[in-house]
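Hey, I was hoping to borrow your eyes for a little while. I've been puzzling over a protein and I'd love to understand its fold better. The fold is given in discrete form, as structure tokens running alongside the sequence. I'd be grateful if you could look everything over and explain what you see. No rush at all, and the record is pasted right below.
>
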Amino acid sequence: MREALETKAALLAVEHITEEEIYRLEQIVNKMAVTKDEKSNIALDKALHYTIAVASNNTILIQILSILSDLIETHIKDRRREIFIDKKNITKLQEIHEALVKGIKNRDSNTTYDAISRHFALIAEYYQND
């Protein structure tokens, strides 16, 4: 469910994002690139996805994603820990987030869709181990 909602939010953001929101996304992704503290990175990750949801300009989608994020926050922290056991995934996820921001900034639905798909494919690799 999260994948479908966040994909829709990202694609709507391509159409509705403001310059201020683009700037915010770029600031977040730049901080993510240099922050080594996992607690800070979790907060930045949450801010990135929330900013994309807000940029979708869809009130219902924003509310659902916000509630969902709060409900699964602990699960996301645990899953990130598992994903980052392989240090290559830290770089991979950063590259995906950068591609996502670039796609939205350039109003490129294909790049945005590809990035969000890669994001959830990475996560899905670790769900298969459950």
